[in-house]
Write a structure and sequence with these properties.
415 residues; alpha/beta; 24% helix
């Protein structure tokens, strides 16, 4: 241990990293805890980036950051190295190499580096017709909110949670919204299945969005490799719209785990970082992982590993990683196997959507209450596997079926 006390490095300043740090502190570990973050802001409520309309402001990024602060982020018992990227890691020798040129030697490490948005083109190729953007951090949110206040038309590629929340927000700002989903029938199909996805697509259309799927969507996808601004000749450029006239083109087509800095250490990085049921990285007794990047044994399906990108997942796995790390140093910490109970809630055009359990592993679904043609009147759905309830979804504009939903949640059983 360095200088007589352990040095704990946490790579990632999101909620998973913060919860891991706080869990370590609660176990009264006598150590120096250093959190490394690419961004210049301390931990904030990342899901909130698409949930609220903001007024015009020269300090919009700071306004959003202040609005989305989370408890514990101001903890000065932690050393914060913000705006500092971890370039590479030597796990054998317990050394991190930083973007500042420094190195950091650690005794224990928590990997909470999260994910980044997936894009349709490599690099930063920018086309002449659209302003291409993704939404992940406060800088992206500042740009997006500013643009939505001035844009007449917004094209959103994808139909997941970020895409749908952003479409709802864009309509609040008064934009004309086009959504393109080339691979599926509608929103959240990979989670809730085709029937509910189609019903949600109808809901989106009813609220003024042009929603195209399949070939109709594919025809309007932008190929930046063909019309990259760098490749357009001078004569062609004179016939194109000016950059200020380009419409906003947002890609919300999934994410990629930030694992590149871990290469060369013999880890399984095929989909995030593989860990055991205590969030310990395989083959590394002194390294743990948490949050979006961690792929852990699925408590809902034996023999399977899962990786989830929900806020509650980051909280739960961060807590467990911190407690497991404290235990590895000999401190009294209540550790258990991962028994994560997935849950997420969002709102799309006033429709509250709540999902719990793991609908993805179901082999059938049952509508407990309501009608998929009238989502705003309340619909409650149970997802079953071999007759056992493994997931639930509740859609409503109010809370008519809330007590029934809570009763259904109590019947969920991890397999």
């Amino acid at each position: 241990m360095t200088d007589g006390e352990p040095r704990i490095g946490i790579v990632g300043s999101g909620i998973a990293g913060l919860r891991a740090a706080n869990a370590i502190l609660k176990c009264k570990v006598d150590a120096r805890i250093v959190i490394f973050g690419d961004e210049t802001h301390r931990t904030y409520n990342r899901p909130g980036l698409t949930k609220k309309r903001y007024p015009v402001s020269d300090a919009l990024e700071m306004t959003i950051a202040e609005d989305l602060k989370v408890n514990g982020a101001e903890n000065n018992a932690l050393t914060w190295r913000l705006g500092t990227k971890v370039e590479t890691a030597d796990l054998r020798n317990r050394v991190l190499r930083l973007s500042t040129g420094e190195t950091f030697e650690y005794d224990r490490l928590v990997i909470a580096a999260g994910v980044r948005p997936r894009t349709s083109a490599e690099g930063n190729r920018e086309c002449a017709f659209h302003t291409h953007r993704t939404l992940r951090d406060l800088g992206d949110a500042q740009y997006m909110h500013n643009q939505l206040q001035t844009s007449e038309k917004v094209t959103i590629v994808g139909a997941g949670f970020v895409a749908c929340e952003l479409a709802s927000l864009a309509k609040e700002y008064g934009c004309e919204v086009l959504m393109l989903e080339a691979l599926r029938c509608g929103p959240f199909e990979s989670v809730l299945g085709k029937r509910i996805s189609i019903a949600l697509a109808r809901w989106v259309v009813q609220n003024g969005v042009t929603f195209l799927t399949g070939d109709s969507a594919r025809e309007l996808l932008c190929d930046r490799t063909v019309v990259s601004a760098r490749d357009v000749s001078a004569s062609e450029a004179s016939n194109l719209e000016s950059p200020s006239d380009r419409s906003l083109f947002v890609e919300a087509i999934g994410s990629v785990p930030n694992v590149e800095w871990l290469r060369g250490n013999g880890l399984d990085l095929s989909d995030g970082v593989r860990v055991d049921e205590h969030m310990r990285v395989s083959q590394c007794e002194d390294v743990f992982a948490a949050g979006d990047i961690a792929r852990y044994p699925d408590p809902w399906m034996a023999g399977n590993h899962t990786r989830m990108e929900f806020w509650k997942n980051a909280i739960d796995t961060g807590d467990l990683a911190g407690r497991s790390l404290a235990s590895s140093l000999g401190y009294d910490a209540k550790i258990s196997q991962i028994g994560y109970f997935p849950s997420i809630a969002t709102e799309v055009f006033g429709l509250r959507i709540q999902v719990a359990g793991n609908p993805k592993i179901s082999d059938s679904m049952e509508i407990i209450c309501g009608d998929l043609d009238q989502l705003d009147h309340g619909v409650l759905v149970a997802f079953l596997r071999e007759g056992v309830t493994v997931g639930a979804a509740y859609m409503d504009k109010g809370a008519r079926l809330n007590s029934t939903y809570i009763a259904l949640l109590k019947s969920l059983k991890a397999r």
